[in-house]
Amino acid sequence: MASIKDAFEESYQDTNAIWKCIIFAIPVFFCAYLYMNAENGNLTGFWFLFSITYLILFGFMIKCTANVRSGKAEVMPSFNVFALFWAGLKGTVALGPSIAINCWIASFLCGLIANYIPEPNTLLIFKIIIWGLFSSIILTGYLCYAKSFKIADAYNFKVISESCCNILIAVLFMIPQVLIADLILIGPVTYVIWVFLGIPHPVALYYWSMVLVFNLSMCGHYLAQVDYEAIAEKEAE
């Protein structure tokens, strides 16, 4: 069974893991800094840097998933920012149509059922189910793509239809585990920073940025485990 504990430990023990978290946290930190200090609501610089940062970090996560899935010794990719940028760009092009279509369908269905279910709590449950289902389709496409880096594999409808529900369940189990891991990573350090420097503070912001990068590695690792269990084993049957 996929284990966030294994994902945490192997990401932490990876070669140069701390340095990679430090370096790749730099654009995240400046994105947050630009957003928090934008003058008169001018976010032009923020959106430009955010776009670049997103592509680098998305490529970083895809590479983490691919490395674990292919059995490589390292979890995190190299320091080559340009390779990560390209991986993120290609991944966005590959998965963009899937994300757009599934989000549109989920949004349409949520709007449709709102006409027939007036009770707010019941409606919320149905909306969560719908978004969860279509998000699992996107995630399954992500895993198929990360395994081969072929755009066509992101739309392997046979694998998606057979595996998306299992992946949804695995991700639902992942979320609380990641929150617990983040509580361990963020809580004590943030408390110390708050006592000595106060919150918000650039040191805290930078540390949180590092935790975000580590999260991408940890989640990428976990999803690779899910891929092996939910997709690879099914294909071997």
Walkthrough of the structure:
With 237 residues, this protein is mostly helical. The protein contains seven helices and no strands. It has helices spanning 4-12, 17-36, 44-69, 81-113, 120-148, 157-196, 202-236.
Give the topology, please.
Layout: H1 4-12, H2 17-36, H3 44-69, H4 81-113, H5 120-148, H6 157-196, H7 202-236
Characteristic key phrases:
237 residues, 81% helix, mainly alpha, globular
The shape, in one word, is globular
Order of helices and strands: HHHHHHH
What portion of residues is helical? Answer: over 70%
Please compute the radius of gyration using only Cα atoms: 19 Å
In short:
Helix content is 81%, strand content 0%. The protein is mainly α and 237 residues long.
